[in-house]
Design brief:
Radius of gyration: 13 Å
Largest sheet: 2 strands, antiparallel
Protein name: DUF2200 domain-containing protein
Number of domains: 1
InterPro entries: SP1917_dom_sf (IPR023204), UCP033199 (IPR014580)
Oligomer: single chain
Structural class: mainly alpha
Shape: globular
Number of strands: 2
CATH topology: Helicase, Ruva Protein, domain 3
Strand content: under 5%
Organism: Flavihumibacter fluminis
Helix content: 55-70%
Number of helices: 7
Pfam families: DUF2200
Strand order of the largest sheet: 1-2
CATH class: Mainly Alpha
């Protein structure tokens, strides 16, 4: 499924701070913790808890968020469907990175083991 330029632009301009509370709610509703969410975000982006908080306070867009990230070299191992898109087939790099994060949060909420989420095995 191809995303449109308008869709990619909308995702790029969306603020990380506006989505972050939804990530927290999603994982906590399923019995996971904010610490586990931060572990997943740090694995993908290299951001520690202090940096995540700073980016939230600055209300950075996803575009800025991922420009500042040091993507995990194993991020390409994240595959599957999220929001109707197969993440490994998304052509726009930024949209793909946002969907990688969505996919990891989804896996966390679904109760996957952390070593599977972090692509360690």
């Amino acid at each position: 499924m191809k995303s449109t330029a308008a869709h990619d632009e909308k995702i790029a301009k969306m603020s990380f701070a506006s989505v972050y509370p939804h990530y927290i709610t999603k994982v906590e509703k399923k019995g996971r913790t904010k610490a586990e969410l931060h572990e997943v975000i740090e694995w993908l982006t290299g951001f520690n808890e202090a940096k995540i908080q700073e980016l939230i306070e600055q209300k950075v867009s996803f575009e800025t968020f991922f420009q500042q990230a040091t993507m995990n070299p194993n991020a390409h191992l994240i595959t599957g469907l999220i929001c109707g898109y197969r993440v490994e087939e998304i052509e726009n790099p930024l949209t793909q990175q946002v969907r990688y994060l969505d996919k990891l949060v989804d896996e966390l909420a679904k109760g996957k083991k952390m070593e599977k989420i972090l692509r360690e095995s």
